Amino acid sequence: LTAEPTTTTAVATHCPYCALQCGMTLSPEADVTPRQFPTNAGGLCQKGWTSPALLRSPARLTTPLVRTDGELRPASWDAALDLIARRLQELRAEHGADSVAAFGGGGLTNEKSYLLGKFARVALGTSQIDYNGRFCMSSAAAAGMKAFGLDRGLPFPLTDLADADAIVLVGANPAETMPPFVQHLRGANAKGGLVVVDPRRTPTAEQADLHLSPAPGTDLALALGILHAVVADGLLDQSYVEDRTSGFDAVWRIVAGYWPEQVERVTGVAAADQRRVAALLARARNAYVLTARGAEQHATGVATVSAWINLALALGLPGRPGSGYGCLTGQGNGQGGREHGQKADQLPGYRKITDPAAREHVASVWGVPAESLPGPGRSAFELLDALGTEGGPRALLVFGSNVVVSAPDSARVAERLSRLDLLVTADLVLSETSALADVVLPVTQWAEEDGTMTNLEGRILLRRKAVDPPEGVRTDLDVLAGLAERLGQPAERFPTDAETVFTELRAASAGGPADYSGISYERLRDGEALYWPVPDERHPGTPRMFLDAFAHPDGRARFEPVEHTGPAEPPDAGFPLLATTGRVLQHYQSGAQTRLVAELNDTVPEVYVEVHPDTAERAGLAHGDLARVTSRRGGTTARVRCVGSMRQDVVFLPFHFPGAQRANLLTNPALDPTSRMPEFKVCAVRLTKEDGA
Ligand code: SF4
Predict the structure, then answer these.
(1) Which of 68, 94, 296, 655 to pair with 307, CA 20 to 30 A apart?
(2) How far is residue 498's CA from residue 461's CA, in Å, rounded to a whole number?
(3) Mutate to test the pocket of ligand 1, among 21, 22, 26, 176 (most ligand atoms within 8 A of CB)
(4) How far from 605 is each of 17, 43, 590, 597, 599, CA to CA, in Å?
């Protein structure tokens, strides 16, 4: 395949992968050069540099595939869409609207996220829709909502970090996940103020001035210990707490019992280091607390993030110019993906689906009665787990997600998918999930289509079409419109042009927390830096939030009283180690894209398990051996990497690999009670020599 130029001039666009959305330029021949943009300042990581390979990949699907006699075989678009619509109608007639479900992704553009949510609620009439962002930053979103009344990953421009004296990064490894981000840490680093909290000595931790290595699942306790030190050492920002917050006393009643020496016994982090972080943050003129997946992907993810927000509030950081709390969103449109209605409990504009006024507003934009809109559905893992079970969905449409690799307890998820009467995927290539489907629809990607993304700062970007797609593929918007029409919807209700969809999204978001109504493609084409909310076309956007007031009705931020409870699955004699999962520089999410890029995949072609040399030796293993890592749910085979800086009680596996190499064969689907985030970051395992190795 060759990517066909759509213009004769280079197109300024953005990277297809992570939430940094680095600026790049694509030539008519689809060659990439970095572009000055505030998040990357002219830098790109290996993933960005090699991204044009995705446009030329021989693995691209270019015709619909329909399973016939057990095999996926080429079919025409009409035949594939007719088949899907007929089966959906049969299932709905026989089992009700909630027998069909949709699953989206945090990499989909705002327009796709919006239209998918509308398609599910209006064309399918189902409540059963959620997306893979539930596995990503939902705990920080819920904690941010509780604390501030509104959640925007970073409520300030990333470039503000340059003037920080101290930054505490909790469970974030941007040196691998988004390398150009690291330049924004240099100011704090130069002043000796960069602290990284991570059980592993990651490449980011290597650069830190202080690395705290708590046992997995204990970072909530660590935050309480540091907060205790803040108060005990007289570092509390008393006037900020009194003027801008509520609920501190209830938090202190808990935190008073978490003195640093006790927290040291729970976390393994020295009491002196806890006090050092408290002093570093309190004495800094400008300071930030930033969390990411390491804090969030727990069955106590919301409480864990709340504990770090409590610390930031006690120090008076949020809503203070040059300081703050923020969450580093991971997926390319992780922020926008959670704002436009593909989440089980939300409508566009980041509105609650249970709010009568929100339902009235969105229904009026959609031209349907508010009472016809379904209520909230199951969260991502609960939806996947219910597939094919009594009362659960019998058909699933998947857009922009590869759940067979990325969902927890992935053997169970694959088994549930196999029970379905109909599994449909819209995909670029035959991912592991598409390989199980009954119908696979080949769709456009990234530089082959227009669309907007909302980066980790809440800044809306126009990602412009630069090349023509291969013949035979269609956009996700075309797919949704084609299905909606076959399901009896008027054509004008499901437009296929991205700008037209965005215009409708603006109207649907108007007046909501994430208000896009003042953003137009024209303003984005003109290069305006627009951070939501943007409530009208003359509004300059909101780069910094909460400077005057938080979004709760009383304008105050709220402390959230939280206790340390530990991992859902502590180690025992049968499973004596803790496994944690994460990412590597060369791969993105499930690896469906990056495993196709030779320069990336040749460097890290298979799963591995990082383990302390003494732990390996006790299991009879040496560096380079094949190990069997087994949890209560299953096992995976991984090459041993002995790493002297690892904690002896912890092993680490990247989760980007398919088949028997899936780290998510191990992970625990215990869910956070609020965010419904699974516990990806810690489960009990044992390590043995692989039979025959
Ligand atoms: Fe930038 Fe992320 Fe793309 Fe790397 S993957 S070039 S950090 S947007």
Answers:
(1) 655
(2) 13
(3) 22
(4) 19, 25, 13, 11, 10
End-to-end CA distance of the chain: 39
Distance from the alpha carbon of residue 655 to the mean position of ligand 1, in angstroms: 18
The one-letter amino acid at 244? R
Between the CA of 433 and the centroid of ligand 1 the distance, in Å, is 24
Which DSSP helix (H) or strand (E) runs through 95? Answer: helix 77-95
> Which candidate, 81, 97, 78, places its Cα nearest to that of 89?
97
Q: Which residues pair with 127 in a beta bridge?
A: none
CA-to-CA separations, 86 to 121, 241, 484, 602, in angstroms, rounded = 18, 59, 12, 43
| Protein residues with CB under 6 Å of any ligand 1 atom | 15, 17-18, 20-22, 40, 44-45, 47-48, 178-180
Provide the pLDDT for residue 7.
66
The single-letter DSSP state of residue 214 is P
Question: Tell me, what's the pLDDT at 5?
Answer: 61
- Strands 467-468 and 4-5 turn out to be antiparallel
Tokens of 610: 């990082």
Residue nearest to atom 6 of ligand 1 (CA): 48
Helix residue ranges per DSSP H, 568-685:
598-601, 613-618
Compute, in angstroms, the gap from residue 177 CA to the centroid of ligand 1. 8
Blockwise average pLDDT, block size 10, the chain, 693 residues: 66 92 89 92 93 92 97 98 98 97 96 98 98 90 96 95 97 94 95 97 97 95 98 98 98 98 97 98 97 94 98 98 94 88 94 96 98 97 97 97 95 97 97 97 95 96 93 97 98 97 97 95 93 96 96 98 95 96 89 90 94 97 96 96 95 93 96 95 94 57
∠ Cα 643 207 234 (to 5°)? 110
The span from the CA of 583 to the CA of 202, in Å, is 11
- Please, what are the domains in the chain? 4-55 (2.20.25.90), 65-135+333-449+472-496 (3.40.50.740), 138-327 (3.40.228.10), 577-689 (2.40.40.20)
Beta strands in 173-286 (DSSP E): 194-197, 210-212, 245-246
The kind and range of the H/E element at 411 are helix 410-418
Mutational pocket test of ligand 1: of 13, 44, 328, the residue with most ligand atoms within 8 Å of the beta carbon: 44
Cβ burial 186-217 (10 Å sphere, 16+ → b, else e): ebbbebebbbbbbbbbbebbebbbbbbbbbbb
Determine which residue's CA is closest to atom 1 belonging to ligand 1.
Answer: 22
If you take atom 7 of ligand 1, which residue's CA is the nearest one? 178
- In this prediction, residue 3 carries a pLDDT of 59
Q: At what angle do helices 110-118 and 476-486 cross, to 10 degrees?
A: 10
3-state secondary structure of 229: helix
- Residue 681: beta bridge partners? none
Atom of ligand 1 nearest to the CA of 44: 6
H runs (alpha helix) in 441-516:
476-486, 498-509
Ligand 1 center to 181 CA (angstroms): 9
Lookup: tokens for 52: 């044009």
Block residue for tokens 């504990």: 307
What pLDDT, on the 0 to 100 scale, is given for residue 188?
A: 96
**pLDDT digits 0-9 by tens, 654-670:** 989 999 999 999 999 99
